[in-house]
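pinging the channel bc i need a second pair of eyes. not urgent but kinda urgent?? the chain im working w is below, pasted from the shared doc
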Amino acid sequence: MSDAVSDPMVEANATPEAPTPDDTAGSPPAGTAASPSGKVAGPPPASAGQPTTRRRGGRWLRLALLVVGLSLLLVVGGTATAGWLYARSVESHVDKVEIFTALPEAQRPVKAVEQARNFLIVGSDSRDPDTSGSRTDTIILAHLPADRSAVQMISIPRDTWVRVPDPDGGDGRQDKINSAYATGGTPLLVQTVEAFTGVRIDHVVLIDFAGFAEIIDAVGGIELAVDESFTSVHPPYRQFTAGLQQMDGDTALDYARQRKQFADGDFTRVRHQQEIIAAVLDQASGSGLLTSPGRLDDFLRATADAVTVDEGTSVFDTVWTLRQLRSTDLTMLTSPSAGTGQQAGQSVVFPDDAAAADLYAAVRADTVDDWLREHPTGS
């Protein structure tokens, strides 16, 4: 892409020219395994010990980018300049927090490929009746190659058993990876992911999954393929019947929270959340949303309310850099695991250290496309 040399994410404070529509389709990266149907594939049991490549699941980053990406297509008053100004106004509603100044530089990985970008995407459900909201439900490492030709996303199971660093330089402790968020917030989670993967994080996107109810309603609801019949454990105890089902925001959020009814618990819940994200994106792009300024405004502002980013991230400039990417340029992987077990009285996921080291070495070297050619099914 032409933006690889002059990267707006590097020059976050620069003011770009008003964008013009760009309908050039991107090409899928070589070696990407994609389902012909485009349907979200479920994550494997933790005991499989293999990552899985998915085309459409876990679009946390895509959702954050869509906040402004759709607004780039909106021509208010018939001018691209007006659409650009509107996009900037939407971005002003995205909360920003300082994260990286709290990290001890001496303990952070060295950046190997300067123009590549690595995002940590953190999803939580702050209104889940079963949790206090202090732990993250979804952790994704998203890698943007230097040439911006693709996006590769690696889901790290929240129960992965890792060493959580001591911010003060001590030995740290062994614990679930999401405990870092509970005890030290986003800075400690970033530090833990960097220690686990050896990959330096450039930007952070925090998404409140509970905010998706408003987003789903703004796109007119979504249709999901329920994989098995079950009853919600939360009032009003909705019945979900196997097969296609139309859902509004509250129903979809209830569906995404369920885990106790399934043998693989949180793995099923993660898959359901991924299916919801994919359905929202499909509905947003195919329901006439772009031709309805009122509906589009509701959608963009609901999404902006659900997203928080680090101070150094410009959502607008990130979207502008990635404007040529399409869904076929996205690859979803799962961090390799070696099964589940018990540690300190809790159920955990054990990482496959050798396989994970191989994958994350490719991320550091910006050679994930090569890794995918060697592992066409993600294994």
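so The CA atoms of residues 38 and 56 lie 6 Å apart. and The mean pLDDT is 75. — does that match what u expected or am i reading it wrong
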